[in-house]
Amino acid sequence: MDASTPTYDALAAHLTRLHHYEHLGSILSWDRAANMPPKGNDARGAAMAELAALMHRMRTEPGLADRIARAQDEPLSDVQRANLREIRRQWQLANALPEELVKRHELLTSRCEHAWRTQRPANDWAGFLENWRPVVALAREEAALLAQQTGLSKYDALMDRFEPGMTSAQVGRVFGAVRQWLPGLIDRVVERQRADKLTAPRGPFGIEAQQALCQRVVAMLGFDFEAGRLDTSTHPFSGGVPEDVRMTTRYREDEFLPALMGTVHETGHGRYEQNRPREWITQPVSQARSMAIHESQSLSFEMQLGSHPGFAAVIAPLLREAFGGQPAFEPNNLCKLMTRVQRGLIRVDADEVTYPAHVILRFEIERALIEGEIEPEDVPALWDAKMAELLHIDTRGNFKDGPMQDVHWPEALFGYFPCYSLGAMYAAQWFAAMRRAMPDLDARIGRGDFACVFDWLRDNIWLQGSRWSTDELAIRASGEALNPAHFKAHLEARYLP
C-alpha cells in the first residue's frame, strides 16, 4: 500500500516556516513588555505590524485551500488528521480577515497598550478612552468578519479564537449558575474566617530577595531555566515559544505573596508550553488545546497546588531564608494567608473564591460591548454597578483599579476572560481525577512530592497538544466533559469543611 503523503508533507513544511516567524513575533512581543525603552514603541509597533502582515499572507496563501482538500484524501495517521483539522481551522480564521485589518490591529493595540502603561497609574480614563475607542471599533470589525466566516455571533466569533467550540450561551449558563451560589459562599467564608487569628508578615520585602525566592520556587516546580526565563513586566504574563518560554511577574516591597503566587501561576503556563509534544512542535496539533485548558494549568499550579496546605509547609523554610524568620511564616499561618478570602478591586490579586466574580463582570461587559449594546464610554458606570452587585465594592471614580486594570482590553483580547474561570473549573476537575487515581495525593503533596501532580498533567494534558477536541481531551483525562460541580465542591471542601 502506498503510504505517500506529498500534499500533507508540503503543508506541514509550510506550517513549519510559519512557526519560525511566530517564534520571532513572540519574542518581540515579550521584549516590548519586559525590556523595550518607551521611545522604541512606534518603531516596534510598525515592525510587528509588518511581521503580522507577512504571517497573514502565509496563512492565506493561494492554493492552500486546494492542498488542504487534497491532503484529506492521503493515507494520514490519526495525528496527521488531527493536525490537518487544526491547519484547516487556522486557514479559515485567517481568511476571514484582510491583511490591512491585521496590520491596523497591530498598530492600534500597540499604541493603546503602550499609552495604558502610564495612563493607568495616572487614573487617566479620558486619555485611555481616546485610544481605546478605535481598538473597540476594530474588534467589532474583526468580530463581524469572523462571524460571517463561522456562523457564530460576533462575541462568540472572538471567543472561538481562544476557546474553540465554546459559546457565550454555554458560558452564560455556567456563570449564571455560579451567580446563584457564589455571593452566599463568599459571605459564609468571610464570616468563618473573621475569627481566624492571623499574623501578618512584616516587610519591607526587598525586590532582589523576592526575585531570588521566585526563581527558587519556579525551579522547584520543574520549570526548565535552560529553556526559559523569569522577568518583570507591568502585567504578569507568559510568552515566548516552547523552546524559549518567557514568563514575567511584578513586585512590590510591602507584600511578597502577590509576586510569588503570580509567578507560580505563570509557571503552570510555562510548564505546559515546555512540555508540548516535541515531535509535532512546529505544527498546530502541538499547540495548547484552548486558553481555558491553558488556564487550567496555571490554576492547577497556583490554586489547586499553590494554595494547598502541603505547599505552604514546603515553601515556609524558603521564606525564612529569603526574608528572615518571623511568626507569619509558620506553615499553618502561611496557609491561612494564602487562602484568605477578601473582596478586593484587583482580579490578578483575587483569591479563588471571589475570582469568578471578577471574570463574570468582565464577560458580561465585553459581550455587550462587542455586540454593540453599549459603547466604550458606558463601561465605567456598568463596571461600578456590577462590582457593587457582585462584590459590594464601590469603584466610582477609580478607573485604574476598575476597567483600566487589565492589559486585555487595550490589546483587544475580547473573549479571553471567560477562559480564566473555565480554567479554574477544569483545574478542580483534574485534581478530582487525580485523587481518584491517587487516594494519597494530599499526603504526597504535604511531603513535597509534586512530581505525581506534574506526571499526571504531562501525560493527560501537556503531551496531548491539540490532538483532541476540548471535550474529548477532558473525557480522556477525567472521564467527563467540563463539569462545574467539581469547582463548587473544591471551594466548599477547602473553605467550608
Structural notes for this entry:
There is one protein chain. The chain is mainly alpha-helical and 497 residues long. The chain has a domain at 6-155. 63% of the residues lie in helices and 3% in strands. The protein is built from 20 helices and 3 strands. It has helices spanning 6-34, 41-59, 64-71, 78-95, 99-119, 125-150, 154-162, 168-193, 207-220, 257-274, 291-305, 309-323, 331-338, 355-370, 379-391, 418-437, 441-446, 451-460, 470-478, 485-495, and strands at 228-232, 238-241, 244-249. The protein has a 3-stranded mixed β-sheet, with helices on both faces. A hairpin with a 2-residue loop joins strand 2 and strand 3 (244-249).
What is the count of DSSP helices, taking H or I runs of 4+ residues? 20
State which percent range the strand residues make up: under 5%
Large-scale geometry: globular
Radius of gyration: 23 Å
User: How many β-strand stretches?
Assistant: 3
Mean pLDDT: 96
Helical proportion, percent range: 55-70%
Order of strands, main sheet, comes to 1-3-2
Give the distance, in angstroms, between the N- and C-terminal Cα atoms: 62 Å
Low-confidence stretches: none
H-E order: HHHHHHHHHEEEHHHHHHHHHHH
